[in-house]
Write a structure and sequence with these properties.
The structure holds three protein chains of three kinds. Chain A is built from 23 helices and 24 strands. By secondary structure, chain A is α+β, with helices and mostly antiparallel strands. In chain A, the strands form four sheets. In chain A, strands 4, 5, 6, 7, 8, 9, 10 and 11 form an eight-stranded mixed β-sheet that branches. A six-stranded mixed barrel of chain A has the order 16-17-22-19-21-20. In chain A, strands 3-13-1-14 form a four-stranded antiparallel β-sheet. The N terminus of chain A is likely disordered. By secondary structure, chain C is an alpha/beta fold. In chain C, about 35% of the residues lie in helices and about 25% in strands. In chain C, helix 7 links the parallel strand 7 and strand 8. The chains are: A alpha+beta, B alpha/beta, C alpha/beta.
Chain lengths: ~850, ~260, ~260
């Protein structure tokens, strides 16, 4: 008697520790996410705060209302600069000329993959630069480079570096100096920089125009920033606007905040998923804890404790557990957040110091979530416990299985409701984007709950099926039977696992389908075998010399080659994609497009062709005229619509004659398609074309696979990232499996004692428990994969109109998940199996 | 008395199925220590039905646990047949229980996930062996379970469950069957069925049965009753009847202070 | 009540009670048309073989289980028809329980266990009364101990104290000495006797032990769900004889050989 009681208490401690671990993890993740976000923001803000130290007023070009962000702004005019310099309130003036360029490293490739390469004038004072070696550039042919550039490019003092921008051709510069930044930094957040003379910078950035990206003015003593602002404003031209340095920094911070907020919500989202999973775990655990205390509860009820008192006492225990666990979790989370900030700051942002910001929301959110989740999860078990009549619990009657009809029907209804939400959201039935997203996300959550309820009904047949694998061993058979004997509990445990697996499977299925759709489209519609293009992530869009196109067309084995220019222009007051090509007809053939109406006999200078939907959008047809202004264009041009193209993902847009390319954002072509003649050797043709493009470092020749891979590499990273972020949810789910097993073993102590008494060995007992565990894990994985495939399919179907026409299954990943499930089952079984094999036979079978 | 006249006592020595020699067993320590068995020596003849009786705390359950290899002794030895079980490791003990001993507990004998038939064959399944089909069929027929083989325990009455437990205990033709209060949870009619079967298995099949009970009428089915009190054997009754058992027990009641004396 | 009044009132009564469990093959009729009255200020034992229904009868009398047919009254209040809240209040204020085991909360000390019903009610127990019980039960030295630090007998004595702490109308004891050795059992029984004689409590005790039944004023015998005998002023001998008689009937029914 004594021994049993002590053991019961100790056992309970182990189970409670496992549960509290889940709460600790969940609240830690949330606290860490909040701390990380806030700290990164603080760190970035610190950096921004260093901008233009010493200056009081900044003048920058007015942001054009009808232009996109990504286009180069006009600059502050020279007249404005003169006016500022002439002001009596101004003590000092500095100018900034900067934008992205491409520089070529010693390996002949463009420097910098993820971080941009910036051109700046040496006189810029937006940041403090410290010369480490050599001197500042004095002539237009000289350049000083940042220390990071030296590392990334392999070039150093005395070498010549070739660089070009959108406005200039490749030019060589002599490296005369190497510099760093304050605090010993080698770069600004990982970007590389080349500092030129102001005139050369203007040539690179503005095509030689005498304008500036910004002008900074310092006030004379006695004049405040606002006073200076007031006195300068009338002098400034209409193309510019002035603001105090503080206002400038504030704007910068606001922009940064937008980005960090998104990251923060993203992380928080995954934290909440883990918390959602832990609900299942905690509910299960409390069912267990209460089941073990049935006699106590019955006794309390017998001597007069009311139902409410029982519920309150269970919830009080839950709150205490939640509070302790979330305090620990908050502590761990804050520490983790600080550590992560440091890692991110040092490796990604290359900052001198990290600013740690611990928002009061972090520990508070962790506590609220931890306690809230624990109490909510314990609610149902608590209420169920209070409903047990005192006598039932004192008897040893074998409980007949409660019918699960009600649960199954409820589950079905809930699943349907959730599915409806997802369908509505995906088909953008609602007006606001946010509502649609919410509908889809909440719908997904509801579907999880519904399937979790349904799993009770599904478990018997599915578990039996899965378990038949072990039918060869008798202990295995017993294990399989045990896995299906408490459908509810098996269902809840499996459901926890299911959530993470579903999310990953759904995402992987969707992304694989997208890849597959792209690939199929390429195979079926696009005739060209080769693509001339550059990496998607280069700072300056990769371009090449259009004059080379003739050489390419003449090359052996080339049947046709078409180059493409693109721009985002204003057409009849709306933003539209505009393409230019010297051979529209040929281009359509290679892309699988077709003319729907009108004729394309040589697109004239004042003529344009466009796809039907876009034409409809603007309300124009054949013979109508539209007015278009290109990114760098100063005046509008008139075009008459001469042809309408059939809507096609790859050919949609407006087409004009390439003579306008000079006014495009990117004046040179960015892509070209090459059709290899039938019977020609693709590799040979590739080689010849590459030879022709030898002097164009920005682009390369790619076949379908390479091109596709380049476009979809992001998807692969996305799948990995999502898996990593879901790892936490998976850990919680695994804890849930362990918990359930421990419970089952404890509940079946008598049975285990009896089996051992009549001759089952320890090894057989272990095997029995292990089979039960693996079966449950596989069941969860099976459910998750099934639901994930369904969800992925649903999203894919919703996106068919957007071009995702194929449905593809990520078989390798699915196989991996089955394997992982087996592993999870094996690992989770270790402790419970050992406990089962060591059961004290006497304690178990003695009638008491 | 509705009991058969037992055979005349054999003069030739019958084989001992279970032998305990100088067994001691104590639990706990210090203040809370309880000596459950004190220097107990007893032999249980093969092919006989023996009952072990005694008040709560007499040590009768402990004795059976030690005899059955479910509990270790502090001192002394226990033999099942000729096998000394005191030094066996867990694996060998488990094998012994599986192959040579049958168990009938007061309750929780059966696995709720298996049918009656599967429960009967449970020890054999665990051993990965097949029991003698004729023998099993015979037991099932004798216990009148042929109609119930496909039922799960929750579909059987208490009496039927215990009969299935009996069948399981005998299915492997063990050297000895230990029954711990097998009729404790049953009503009169079902108890009778179970006890009659146990009697038959001894008379017709030559099984050896050692049964712990506190019920005099159950003990009356046995060939011999061994009485324990405070961890020692205090009486050995041959050819018991319900009367003689009760009288013997009454004798014990007289050894402790009774209510009548306190008033 | 501190002294027994000459006029005996009924503390607990059952009228025409039926109770069955399970369905189909596995159904068991535990109580068949049972009617019995228990006088207040008396010590009554309920006896019977396993499966006779004695525990079930006590559960029904104590409001722990519902009857299928018939009524139960505690001090004039009918139990049938009371909702769970009212039943719980009744158990809390008017009934004391001593179970065979699992009486005490392992996390509380002996003293806290004794005042548990009062704590649940949110009231304070009568300190003089509590002191008296504790002294009578010889538990004064054990008040700060947890149940795991107490012997079986001491635990049951604490359970007795707890049962009487609220001066209930009736105390139901379910095999209170079932897990105890002879000496501890006698201590508990002596106390129960004292509480009836000196404090005027009413006790209904289920037991299978003739020696325990001898402490009672009256023994009610159950068999197969019915009352078969009602014995006043029992002694161990008389009880054993009665049991023998039953055994003979039972053996006759069981044995196939005359």
């Amino acid at each position: 008697m004594l021994r049993a009681t002590l053991k019961g208490m100790a056992a309970r401690k182990a189970r409670l520790i496992l549960t509290s671990l889940a709460v600790v993890l969940g609240s830690a993740f949330i606290a860490a996410a909040l701390v990380l976000t806030a700290s990164i923001r603080a760190t970035v803000d610190d950096l921004s705060g260093d901008s233009y130290t010493g200056s009081d007023v900044l003048v920058q070009p007015v942001e054009p209302e009808n232009r996109g962000d990504r286009l180069v702004r006009d600059g502050v005019s020279a007249q404005t600069l003169d006016a500022i310099e002439a002001s009596g309130d101004v003590a000092e003036v500095s100018t900034t000329v900067t934008w992205m360029i491409n520089a070529i490293g010693d390996d002949g490739k463009i420097v910098g993959a993820l971080a941009p390469t910036m051109a700046v004038n040496w006189g810029d004072e937006s940041v403090e630069r410290e010369l480490r070696d050599g001197r500042a550039p004095e002539t237009d042919g000289e350049v000083a480079v940042s220390a990071q550039f030296v590392t990334d490019s392999g070039l150093g003092l005395g070498d010549t570096v070739n660089a070009y921008s959108l406005a200039t051709d490749e030019t060589g510069y002599e490296i005369v100096g190497v510099y760093g930044y304050s605090g010993g930094r080698n770069s600004l957040s990982g970007a590389t920089e080349l500092a030129f003379t102001t005139t050369e910078a203007q040539r690179l950035v503005f095509g030689g125009e005498d304008v500036y990206t910004a002008v900074a003015a310092t006030a004379v003593d006695g004049v405040s920033a606002t006073e200076l602002l007031a006195s300068l404003e009338p002098a400034i031209g209409a193309e510019s606007e002035a603001l105090t340095r503080q206002a400038y920094v504030d704007d910068l911070n606001a922009e940064n905040a937008e980005v960090t907020n998104v990251i923060g919500y993203f992380l928080l989202g995954f934290g909440l998923i883990a918390v959602f999973v832990s609900v299942f775990l905690i509910a299960n655990t409390f069912s267990i804890v209460i089941a073990g205390r049935l006699k106590e509860i019955a006794m309390m009820r017998a001597i007069g404790a009311s139902r409410g008192q029982i519920i309150r006492s269970v919830l009080a225990e839950a709150s205490l557990l939640g509070a302790v666990a979330s305090v620990v979790g908050a502590g761990i989370g804050v520490a983790a957040g600080a550590g992560l900030t440091s890692i991110v700051a040092n490796n990604l942002l290359d900052t001198a110091g990290t600013s740690l910001a611990i928002p009061w929301t972090a520990p508070l959110a962790a506590l609220a979530v931890g306690i809230g989740v624990t109490v909510l999860s314990a609610l149902v078990p608590a209420v169920r416990a209070s409903k047990i009549p005192p006598v039932e619990a004192m008897r040893e009657a074998a409980k007949a299985d409660k019918p699960i009809v009600a649960v199954t029907v409820t589950g079905l209804i809930i699943t349907l409701v959730g599915a409806t939400g997802i369908v509505l959201g995906l088909n953008e039935v609602f007006e606001a984007d946010r509502t649609n997203l919410l509908a889809a996300a909440v719908g997904a959550g509801v579907v999880f709950v519904g399937v979790a309820l349904l799993t009770a009904w599904l478990s018997k047949p599915l578990v039996a099926l899965l378990g038949s694998v072990w039918a060869w061993s008798f202990a295995g058979r017993l294990g399989r039977l045990n896995a299906s004997r408490n459908p509810r509990r098996t269902a809840v445990t499996a459901a926890a696992l299911m959530i993470g697996v579903t999310l990953v499977t759904a995402t992987a299925t969707l992304l694989t389908s997208v890849k597959e759709s792209l690939a199929e489209r390429f195979e079926t519609s696009i005739q060209a075998e080769l693509f001339i293009t550059g990496p998607v992530t280069s700072s300056v869009p990769a371009t090449f010399d259009p004059a080379l196109m003739d050489d390419i067309r003449d090359a052996d084995g080339v049947a046709a080659a078409v180059e493409l220019y693109y721009d985002l222009a204003q057409v009849d007051g709306t933003e539209q994609y505009v393409n230019a090509t010297s051979d529209l007809q040929g281009g359509l053939e290679l892309f699988g497009g077709e003319v729907a109406d009108g004729s394309l006999d040589g697109l004239g200078e004042a003529e344009t062709a466009v796809n039907e939907s876009a034409a409809e959008q603007l309300g124009v047809g054949i013979g109508d005229t539209v007015s278009a202004t290109f990114s760098r264009g100063t005046e509008a041009h008139e075009f008459t619509v001469v042809a309408l193209l059939a809507d096609n993902e790859d050919t949609d847009g407006w087409y004009v004659d390439p003579s306008y390319a000079g006014e495009f954002y990117t004046p040179k072509p960015t892509t070209a398609l090459v059709d290899v003649a039938d019977g020609a050797d693709v590799d040979a043709v590739t080689a010849s074309v590459e030879d022709i493009l030898a002097d164009e470092p920005a682009v390369s020749v790619q076949n379908h696979e390479e091109y596709l891979a380049q476009v979809t590499v992001f998807f692969d990273y996305a799948i990995i990232a999502i898996q990593l972020l879901l790892a936490l949810a998976m850990i919680v789910a695994v804890i849930g499996v362990i918990n359930t097993l421990v419970l089952s073993v404890l509940e079946r102590t008598r049975e285990l004692g009896m089996l051992r008494a009549i001759g089952m060995t320890r090894g057989q007992t272990t095997r029995m428990v292990t089979v039960e565990s693996v079966t449950i894990a596989l069941f969860g994985a099976l459910l998750g994969i099934g639901t994930g495939l369904l969800l992925g399919w649903a999203v894919q179907q919703a996106l068919v109109s957007k071009g995702v026409e194929s449905f593809a299954v990520p078989t390798a990943l699915i196989a991996a998940y089955f394997g992982a499930a087996v592993l999870v089952g094996l690992v989770a079984a270790i402790a419970p199996a050992v406990r089962a094999s060591k059961v004290n036979i006497l304690g178990a079978i003695s009638y008491q | 008395m509705p009991l058969a006249n037992p055979p005349a006592p054999q003069i030739t020595r019958t084989r001992s199925a279970v032998t305990a020699s100088n067994v001691w067993r104590a639990y706990g320590s210090g203040e809370a220590q309880v000596v459950a068995l004190r220097d107990v020596s007893v032999q249980f003849a093969s092919g006989a039905f023996t009952a072990i009786m005694g008040p709560s705390g007499s040590g009768k359950s402990t004795l059976m646990h030690c005899l059955a290899g479910l509990d270790t002794t502090d001192r002394g030895s226990v033999l099942i047949g000729d096998t000394e079980i005191s030094g066996l490791n867990d694996k060998d003990l488990t094998k012994l229980r599986r192959d040579k001993i049958g168990f009938i507990f007061q309750q929780f004998n059966l696995l709720p996930t298996l049918t009656a038939e599967e429960n009967i064959l449970l020890p054999a399944s665990i051993a990965g062996a097949k029991p003698d089909p004729d023998w099993v069929a015979r037991i099932i027929a004798t216990l009148d379970l042929s109609e119930r083989l496909t039922h799960k325990p929750t579909e059987l009455s208490g009496g039927q469950q215990q009969r299935v437990a009996c069948a399981r205990a005998l299915a492997t033709r063990p050297e000895v069957v230990f029954a711990d209060e097998p009729t404790g949870n049953l009503d009169t009619r079902s108890s009778g069925e179970v006890l009659r079967f146990l009697r038959r298995s001894v008379d017709d099949f030559g099984q050896t049965i050692v049964m712990v009970t506190h019920d005099p009428s159950a003990a009356a089915h046995a060939d011999r009753v061994v009485f324990l009190a405070d961890g020692q054997i205090v009486e050995d009754l041959h050819r018991p009847t319900a009367d003689s058992v009760i009288d013997t027990m009454r004798g014990f009641e007289n050894r402790v202070p009774l209510a009548g004396e306190a008033r | 009540m501190s002294t027994s009044s000459p006029v005996k009132t009924t503390a607990v009564s059952a009228e025409g009670v039926w109770k069955a469990y399970g369905t189909g093959e596995a159904q068991v009729v535990a109580l068949r048309d049972v009617s019995v009255q228990f006088a207040s200020g008396a010590f009554t034992a309920i006896m019977g073989p396993s499966g006779s229904g004695k525990s079930t009868l006590m559960h029904c009398l104590a409001g722990l289980d519902t009857t299928d047919r018939g009524t139960v009254h505690i001090g004039g209040t009918p139990l049938t028809g009371l909702n769970d809240k009212a039943l719980t209040k009744l158990r809390r204020d008017k009934i004391g329980f001593i179970f065979q085991q699992f009486n005490l909360l392992p996390t509380l000390t002996a003293e806290e266990n004794i005042t548990l019903p009062a704590a649940i009610a949110g009231a304070k127990a009568d300190p003089d009364w509590i002191k008296k019980i504790i002294h009578t039960l010889d538990l004064t030295d054990r008040l700060s101990h947890k149940p795991t630090e107490l012997s079986g007998g001491q635990q049951q004595r604490v359970a007795c104290a707890r049962a009487l702490a609220t001066r209930p109308d009736v105390v139901f004891a379910d095999e209170p000495t079932g897990n105890l050795d002879t000496r501890s059992g006698a201590e508990v029984l002596r106390f129960l006797r004292t509480s009836v004689d000196d404090f005027g409590q009413t006790i209904v005790m289920v037991t299978h032990d003739p020696g325990a039944a001898a402490y009672a004023d009256r023994v009610v015998f159950l068999a197969d769900g019915q009352i078969v005998e009602d014995m006043a002023d029992p002694t161990a001998d008389k009880v054993i004889d009665k049991m023998k008689h039953f055994e003979e009937l039972v053996a006759a029914a069981q044995g196939e050989i005359a």
